[in-house]
Structure formats: C-alpha cells, structure tokens
Design brief:
The chain is α+β, with helices and mostly antiparallel strands. The chain folds into four domains: 74 residues; 86 residues, Thrombin, subunit H, CATH 2.40.10; 103 residues, Thrombin, subunit H, CATH 2.40.10; 110 residues, Roll (Pdz3 Domain). It is built from eight helices and 22 strands. The strands form five sheets. The chain has a six-stranded antiparallel β-barrel. Strands 7-8-9-12-11-10 form a six-stranded antiparallel barrel. The longest helix has 31 residues. It is elongated and about 65 Å long. It starts with a helix and ends in a 5-residue tail after the last strand.
Amino acid sequence: MNDYYSKTTSKTVRYGLLSFVIISMVTIGIVTGGIFAYAITSQSIHDLNTQLTDISVQNETVNQTSIQYYFDETSLSDLYSQVKDSIVVITGTISYQSYFQISYTTAQGSGFVYAYQDEYYVITNNHVISDAEDLVVTFSNGNAYAASLIGADAYSDLAVLEVDAPEVEFIALSMTSSSDIQVGNPVIAIGTPLGLDSTMTTGIVSQLGRTIEESLAGNFPIANIIQTNVAINPGNSGGPLLNYQGNVIGITTAIIEDTEGIGFAIPSDTILKEIDSLITQGVYTEHSWIGISGVDMTYAISQEIDATVTYGWLISYVNPNSAADIGGLLGGSQRIQVIDETVIIGGDIIIAIDGYRIVNGDDLMSYLESQTTPGQVITVSIERENEFLDIPIELGRRPVVS
C-alpha cells in the first residue's frame, strides 16, 4: 500500500515540475523576443493548458483512489485487536512411563473460539490434545477454565473442545470457505509459539492441495492442505490462519523440521464439512478410501519403464479386498533402482479421476479428500502397459482411528 501510494505521489510531483518548466520556458521566450524563437499561438497555448489540466485531473483521480485504498485497508494492528481475544492457549498433562516411575509432561498448543448453533466451542488440532488429560483453556485476559474433548478426527487433525467458562469469555471468530483462496493471498497466523502467547505472524499462501503425514493418522495421509510461509513453531498448532478480513481460512497444524518458511494448515472447508459430526457424534467417518500406495511419476521413472506419460501416480501396492482391489487396479511386482530411489514397477499409473488430471500423489489424495465420499463411484483413468483404460471404482471408508 505505502509503495503504491508513494509512486503515485512522486508521479504527481514530476508532472507538476514539467508544467512549471514548460510555462517558464514559454514565458522566457516571449520576454526575450529574438533570443528564443518560439512559434507560440493562442491555440497552441490553449492546447497545452488543456493537456496540463487533463494530466492534473488524472493525477488527482489516481491520488484520491490511492488514498481511499490506503484508508479502506484494515491495518494489521487493528485486525489483531479485533481477533486476539478469540484465540486461546490450550494446556494438558501427558503421563508416560519412565525407567523407574510414571512421569508427566505438559502439552501445549493454540485454539480459537467458534460458534455453532448458538453454542461456543474451541477448535484445535487433534495432536495438541491427544493423550492429554486435565485440559485447560486460557483466554487472552488470563482467565483459565477446565475443558473437555467432545470430538476429534485424526485423519484431518481436528479436535473440538467444550470449555466450562461463562459466556462473556467467548468471542467467536467468523469462518469463510477456503475454496476461494489463491496462491499469493496474504494470510495471518496467531498462536502460542514456544509458549509466547498471542503471537502474530504474517505471510502468504505458498501452495494448495498439499499432503502431509501425521503419526496419529496411521499410514493414511492428511490431504488437501494449505502450504504457507507464515512463521509456525511448536505451540502454534491449533491456532487460526486468517485472511486480511479477519476470517478463519484454516488451522495451523505442522511444519517441516529444520526448514524456514514451510508451514501447513488444515483448510476451513474441511472444518466446515466436519464440525457438525464432530460436535454431535464425536467423530467424522466420511473419509473415502481407495486402498493403494505408490509414488509420483517422474521423467526418470518413465524412461526406465518405457511409459508414455511422465506425470501421474504409479501404484506400488494394492490392499487386498480394498476398493482398488475389487475394482481391478494393479500394483507393482518388481523393484528397480531409479537414480537414488528404489521403485516398485509394474503397476498401473493413475493419470486422472473423473476427468481431473492427476499430476502427482498430492493431486490424487486431495481430490479424494475434497471431492468424494464413501460409496461414491469414480472413474479412474490409468496407463497400463502403454494402454489407456477407464476403470470404475466404488470407494470404501477409512477405518475409525481410536
């Protein structure tokens, strides 16, 4: 904003200087007569004045637009003031068996207040409260209250808490669909990194449709994830990812260790899809399952197996009695070395689902997570021994994680 405003201001200054120089030169020419021979007519002066007036009007319009844009845009400090009281700190106690006795450690993360059917809840990550007892939620004013878990889903790393606090403590955040966000959109995270409560960081959406792994989800991926360069550290987990209107578009959940600027957030569409089931039933059971494992196709793999495509997802293994197995998809049968990677070849290469191009595993898992439900029949397009086939698959249901 400030750069844009400064550029338009400097342009006005330059145009103003040009006007002064031209008028001065004309005046000098008229006064000195034969020294400067200018062919000035009343019409040319009129045309010149008209052009200068037009330029001035244009500059004024640009300046007014820039100023209006500047003052319409909510400042980050104002935005922080609006939302900070909705973000909470979550702590709990985890017991574990040490060499000689049972020992205890403190679990800590972030969360935010959300209103559902006129009741207030705190949303956080499942991994923040998993295995923790004696949960406590602390609000920004320092008031702390006991909390209890009422619903969780390891496959999306979501959890919902009920807090034993008076209604005056709850200031709910608004949540908007994440389907409209784009790479490059500015975003904000507020949480408790390394115990530093109410910390605000800013960045952008770096990419969409990522897939991450979380140990509590077993061997199943957490798909359709937002990647961001917002600074996320231990303790940020469970806090909101916000747009510049102060609406929740995700929930910060993970980082890649020993890296900077690579963080991940569960999209708000996943929360909105699951929140009713998590609150009313305590679980969410509508994750579809196809039952395969594999690797991303690359140019090197394509050359080794003489495939006609260099994109897609190469199936390494098909789970017995899974949707893929029943539908007729094939896994690999031979291990080969491709550069520095061991690859199981001989399986089908998935290149599309329902006409949607599958470039890699992120595309495959994110499509299944966001666009399908158990029992739905999808059309899987594959390459098998240089032949292209469309195979109908009726999707199964992931088992519930206890």
